[in-house]
Amino acid sequence: MSAAARQNDSLAPGMIGRRTEVVEGTQRLPPLADLLARDRPVIFRGLAVDWALARAGLEGAAAAIAYLKRFDAGRPVVGYTAGPEVGGRFFYGPELQGLNFAAERVSLSACLDMIAAHLETLAPPSFYVGSTDLDLYLPGLGAENGLDLPAPPEGQAPPTVSIWLGNRTTAATHFDMSNNLACCLVGRRRFTLFPPDQIGNLYPGPLEPTPGGQVVSLVNPSTPDLERFPLYAGAAAVAEIADLEPGDVLFYPALWWHNVEALEPFNAMINYWWNDTPAFMDTPMTTLLHGLLSLRDRPEAEKQAWRGLFDYYVFGPADRPAAHLPEAARGDLAPLDERSARRLRARVLQKLNR
Q1: Which of 53, 110, 272, 296 could be joined to 181 by an S-S link, Cβ 3.0–4.6 Å?
Q2: Is the CA virtual torsion 209, 215, 217, 221 positive or negative?
Q3: CA distance 233 to 246
Q4: For residue 178, what pLDDT is reported?
């Protein structure tokens, strides 16, 4: 692509944020603890440019597709297909009724063949395979394409490693509950990133159904409707744009909202999700859903009183509530381990099933 063409798609209309920080020339990631301490996105330019899939992609889409098909284990994947009229943006139907795409179990190689058949089509259907376990569906691919990450501390789950494939598609703005290392290997991608505190300016859609399993913003960052979504201007002001070339690796922390555009006729990305927490911990999304059930519609004075309790027991220092209690009397306030977490989970289930 020419420099002039790249300039034409520089910043999305209506976007007044800044470029994500770029680190050039690094051969290795910094320690994961250092990444988490940054608490901001950062691009490591060219960190994965020598991976086999990235090298194949530089030869062309056909070469990258042929390389990937060598590793197809034959397990059907979930393939998403949408008509040309959606412009690659997987989203809701009119009035948020239904979804604008179809999902079905398909052969990975067959899906890649469909993409290959439309590489030269001006307005092709949209094809997308997302969040597909690398070792399960493409065994051996990770051995030739992977970050050298340290083993997780004892009791923590290893990173979830997934592959994302498709033509020109867009994943609507959403957040993940894990930290992310996104490795752009074939094609170019644009991430538009928003800090977690911008949720009120992003106009989240329904909790379910959702286009991809997580709640999405109703605002399209490429064409924001500020008459319908005026508060989005606040989110745009603090947004970050991360433009990724083949071989670039993007880090961003858990719960950062991100809109992801794949910009070429064929695109492939491998990502790593991980949490710096013990594996026995439950997802906070369950707590949020129960909060809707138990707290949201209580009188305002009660809600504020409960806010104080949550600040004391949950959001404040973890050791504070039990600090004045004898160790034998701390019960659920003591530090959790796998056994005590299992016991607490059983108590919660018992209360929910009353």
Answers
A1: 272
A2: negative
A3: 31
A4: 97
